[in-house]
Amino acid sequence: MPADFVQAAALTVGASFVVWNIYHRYEPAGFLSAGFLLFAIPGFIAHQVQPLFSSLTRAYLTIFTIYWGVILLFTTAYRLSPFHPLAKYPGPTACKVSKIWMSVIAAKGYTHRYVCDLHTQYGDVVRIGPNELSFRHEDLINPILANKELRKGPYYDIRTQDGVSPLDGLKDYAEHAARRRLWNRGTSVASAKTYTDHLRHVIDEFMQALAQRQDQTIDISKWMSFAALDFMGHMTESFDMIKIGRDHNGLIHAVDEICYQCHVVSQTPWIFAFLKYIPGAASGIKTARRAGQEVADKRMKRGSNSRDLYHYLLDEDGFEKIKPSKDVALVEGILSIIAGADTTATAIVNAVYFLLKNPEVKKRLQAEIDDALSAQDSPDYTKFVELPFLNACVNETLRLLPPGLTGFQRQVDPKSGGKMLGEYFVPAGTNVSAHLYTIQRDPRYFQPLPLTFWPDRWLEQDVYTLPSGEKIGKDQVVLSRNAFYPFSTGQQSCAGKTVAHLELRSILIALLHRFEILPAKGYRVDSYEENLMDVYVTLRGPLQVQLQSRLE
Ligand code: HEM
Known about the structure:
Helix content: 40-55%
Mean pLDDT: 90
Cofactor: heme
Strand order of the largest sheet: 1-2-8-5-3
Bound molecules: protoporphyrin IX containing FE
Distance between the termini: 92 Å
Keywords: Iron, Membrane, Metal-binding, Monooxygenase, Oxidoreductase, Transmembrane, Transmembrane helix
């Protein structure tokens, strides 16, 4: 036992140095190791040195303060030191010290703008975490996202619950490929065609519901969530939100909450190991799991009466040797709601937002749509998805405000010797991403007016007219399609791109054909973009509009 206070302090510092080393080398995660290394050891020391203190409480307070303080000091000093493998990469001190800083930014909802500003300040590569780099260069998109040597990073760890992960959390390529087969069958061009009946039905209901609310102020963002969830619902299990005109069992709220909580916690996934034991913490994650459970249960009990998405996810055609389990169906059901409904609703609402801000563009798009539909008495809105100016408007929306605003994190194999990404050597175990929001606004890839909604850049022309009326030649226009990847790229890119294209174009055509959409009186349209939150997908606030029929 230490004879005096100095010996006790030296013992505590020595123990914390050993434990810092263990964390530094082996990164043990989980409840048991943390309990032992962070609580049991200092608790044991405090117990041993208790006679040196006036009370047991004082002994515990002093030893724990020294023990944790020294671990924090070593950690901070090492991460800021020239010995850290990422020392040569620039970035803010707070990011270099701890990922907790990014959790704070994530909690405020502006990670997209923060990382974009960091790139403006520091250049094409920024250290955004002690062990993480963000890149802003089109040449690094494929090496990061379409590279089998890099797996998904720890950001995706908390998607795995009770040992089961949805498709987008699977890190093992073979396992991912097997599960992705189910999704690919369910979202192929052929399957997408079979969903058009559902889509037509949803669009009809949606247009009727909006027609009943003409000349009132409505939140088109909320209504678009109803429509997108009803469509995904038809592909899985019906929600009927358009009919009831409100959220079904708090599902929208639960989806928003799960995205928000997951995004904040995913910055430091080790925290989740503790949060799940705290009652009330991570409630959104639990609520959405319950909602997914309900959908999966109902659909599995009902069985198949049409080839909906679940038909493929449950492999009801029996293509697979091993049938997907009920747990897999459950997690994929939740994924279909978050990945399928929320993203598409955001893309449509973002498009409406840009059109409200650019009435001339809206007029031109409506003219294109009217022209295409002129010969139809009762148009089938799902049939006209290949209109050039519509495509240009959709691309420009997905460029400036992609529904997933972030970079999609990958990790350099911790067991490798590191990896060259372009001209940059990236040490083993480093997390990397190519920041989507930033790259899609980069003037090197989109010129002129990289920050302006200017759909014309997507149309091949000899002479281009800028929004100001000025004419420029095609040699003055830069458009890099490589730097446009709102659906990501590579093996783990969006599985629902075909369905998304069909849905978002059909709904936009119907909306713009049937209604004049105007900002609600007294509503400041810019507030919509200002209030958007980056929670990996986009968390939207209201977009208040008034609709007037265009069909009389
Ligand atoms: C405009 C609409 C959409 C956009 C912009 C979009 C974008 C994306 C992106 C960027 C990813 C990759 C995320 C990552 O690596 O972390 C992704 C993955 C995924 N998306 Fe979409 N998505 C959209 C609509 C849809 C729809 C309608 C569905 C379903 C019908 C869907 C299903 C999926 C699935 C299952 C994944 C995971 C793929 C995998 O890990 O292999 N998405 N999406």
